[in-house]
Amino acid sequence: MRADFFLYNGKMKPINWYPGHMKKTRELIEENLKLVDAVIEVCDARIPASSRNPILSELTAGKPRLLVLNKNDLADENATRAWVEHFRKNGTGNQQGAYTAALALNSMSGEGVRGLLSRLDHLEEEKTAAGAASFKGERSLRLMIVGIPNSGKSSLINRLTGRRATQVGDRPGVTRGKQWLLLPNGMQLLDTPGILWPKFEDPEVGLDLAFCGAIRDEIMDTTELCLELLRVLLRDWTEALAARYGVGIPGRARDDSDLVIVGVDPQSTDSEEFDEDGHPIETKDPVLAAMEEIAYSRGFLLQAGRIDYMRTARMILDEFRSGKIGRITLEFAP
Ligand SMILES: Nc1nc2c(ncn2[C@@H]2O[C@H](COP(=O)(O)OP(=O)(O)OP(=O)(O)O)[C@@H](O)[C@H]2O)c(=O)[nH]1
Ligand SMILES: [Mg+2]
């Protein structure tokens, strides 16, 4: 299997770039763009900025755009509301004057789908009224759905068609080619495979995408990825993490009452602690300590009591992705 990215020292490094199937999808989108009246961009409500592909945004800039923040059942409600408001105020990045809208929805339950349909109706009415050259009102809207891998494009299409018209899966890269579908309201919709972009300027973006399942797990170090996720959760979602696993609340993980801290090297990012005789006390990275505590509490141990890091990491990532740790948003509206 060909790898597109790997995780090294907390950074997503692209390898073997630009992958052939993503280049092909880009061409597919470019070729079919002239056939459609509007674009539905599906991003992930947990990471509404990181999950927007700048290439797609640029390619489709001239078209009316409906930005869908999908999987809103997994994201924090207040954070999602702030994001929708942000896009409403600032637009979604298509050309000035072009129709744009942003809305949150859940493709699994269908919550929010009616809002999307009414916006599409509205757009169709506008187009008909304007008598657009390519759109004389003699037909219904033609739409294209685009987005990063695993954001739920095909799931949304199945919702809109009311049947299992396209294949979906809990991993990136399920849709491979284009597929035209007819909606009950007469509109036509083109499903496309998810694509990423060649370089993540900000390593956090790569990590966010990996946490949320947009990058194939097979090519990443699961334990390292999980530690990166725990680092973020310990920082921003302390309560949720403590409620699920009983870790991360200060003072709970380790009892520091006997320690006398006599010196911290200001140059060092790791603070070293010393006992009363001046011997350094080994301190464990709190993120690793949290992971080990979770492993012990779940009994994820190998022979001789060694920790099964892989199994623990897999479990934590799965629980995050399925919302078991809570409704968690990883980045917040500016
Ligand atoms: N919780 C939740 N899960 C969702 C939602 N929408 C989709 N999913 C899940 O997300 C996974 C990906 O869904 P797909 O529809 O295959 O995603 P896609 O964007 O078509 O993916 P590619 O074809 O690989 O680009 C599946 O496991 C879906 O069940 C949602 O609103 N909420
Ligand atoms: Mg798909």
Structural commentary:
The chain is built from ten helices and ten strands. With 334 residues, it is an alpha/beta fold. The strands form three sheets. Strands 5-4-3-6-8-7 form a six-stranded mixed beta sheet. Strands 1-2 form a two-stranded antiparallel sheet. The chain is elongated, with a radius of gyration of 23 Å. The two termini are 38 Å apart. It binds guanosine-5'-triphosphate (GTP) and magnesium ion.
Q: Would you tell me the structural class of the helices and strands?
A: alpha/beta
How far apart are the termini?
38 Å
- Spell out which ligands are present: guanosine-5'-triphosphate, magnesium ion
Widest sheet, order of strands = 5-4-3-6-8-7
Q: Provide the residue-averaged pLDDT.
A: 87
Helical proportion? 25-40%
**Radius of gyration from CA coordinates:** 23 Å
**What's the CATH superfamily of the largest domain, by name?**
P-loop containing nucleotide triphosphate hydrolases
What's the architecture of the largest domain in CATH terms? 3-Layer(aba) Sandwich
What is the domain tally? 2
Number of helices: 10
